[in-house]
Q: What sequence folds into this?
């Protein structure tokens, strides 16, 4: 492949099909009959010749179109759905009950009553290393290294000096054992077990992988449950909540990766492109206005390198 062709293809990939003309630096271009543009069918002129050292790329016909979910009309605003958790104040009131005589004032009062006031800090913890050879869930207990990892995670969370409200954990053995070790460093924080956060196949990944291909029915069963976990646990604070909250969720890599994609409104099919170490900390922040920020993804910087695993 010539250098010019390689550069053209590279620019094509960078452009993503979103521009009509692009230019990349190449070697000196040969003269084109004095530099005049050639007429096109219908009388329109071709674009002017490229300045020395630049190669004009053709229109987007030579580049693959952008992914469908990226395309949007010009000036249509951002992709963000402010009512992603169905907790926008306007979505929580029944407009049919509005008092016609004092409509605007009453509506403003009711909207204010439904507005969230606090910020939620959600810490998603992946369970520690466990015995992969266990035939049943009860046999997939933490390894000695996994117990060390949980100790390190617990110490890290305690060192943050935050007043944690609760620890919600998957009912699977490896998550439960990780929770028990972490909770020793956070005395007094209540623990809640749930089946919703159990490991599973949330949605068929794109691109697919060859080493992991669950049955299609598993996506339907696990996907509905994990989506239910997202809707149940990941949302802005209730309007009655006065102070910021700090909550810990101990669960599994697939669940955490799916939750992160959904919370950030990224394509959920991309969940398998993310990677999480055992005992890692992922920190999501949900503001009162529904905005979501990812402050940490799979953090294990608090662990010595020889204690870090991803199984």
A:
């Amino acid at each position: 492949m010539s250098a010019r062709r390689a550069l053209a293809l590279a620019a094509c990939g960078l452009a993503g099909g979103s521009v009509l003309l692009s230019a990349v630096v190449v070697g000196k271009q040969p003269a084109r009959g004095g530099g005049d543009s050639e007429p096109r069918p219908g009388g329109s002129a071709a674009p002017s010749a490229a300045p020395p050292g630049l190669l004009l790329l053709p229109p987007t016909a030579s580049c693959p179109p952008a992914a469908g979910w990226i395309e949007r009309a010009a000036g249509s605003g951002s992709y963000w759905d402010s009512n992603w958790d169905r907790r926008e104040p306007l979505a929580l009131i029944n407009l049919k009950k509005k008092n016609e005589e004092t409509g605007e004032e009453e509506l403003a009062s009711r909207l204010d009553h439904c507005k969230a006031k606090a910020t939620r800090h959600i810490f998603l913890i992946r369970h520690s290393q466990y015995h992969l050879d266990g035939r049943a869930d009860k046999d997939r207990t933490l390894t000695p290294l996994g117990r060390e990892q949980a100790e390190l995670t617990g110490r890290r969370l305690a060192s943050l000096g935050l007043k944690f409200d609760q620890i919600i954990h998957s009912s699977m053995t490896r998550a439960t054992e990780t929770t028990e070790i972490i909770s020793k460093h956070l005395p007094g924080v209540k623990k809640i077990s749930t089946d919703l956060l159990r490991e599973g196949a949330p949605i068929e990944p794109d691109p697919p992988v060859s080493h992991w291909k669950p049955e299609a029915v598993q996506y339907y069963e696990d996907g509905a449950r994990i989506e239910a976990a997202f809707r149940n646990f990941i949302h802005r604070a209730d309007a009655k909540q006065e102070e910021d909250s700090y909550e810990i969720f101990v669960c599994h890599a697939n669940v955490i990766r799916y939750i992160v994609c959904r919370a950030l409104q990224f394509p959920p099919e991309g969940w398998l492109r993310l990677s999480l170490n055992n005992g890692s900390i992922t920190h999501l922040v949900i503001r009162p206005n529904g905005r979501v920020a990812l402050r940490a993804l799979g953090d294990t910087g608090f662990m010595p390198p020889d204690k870090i695993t991803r199984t």
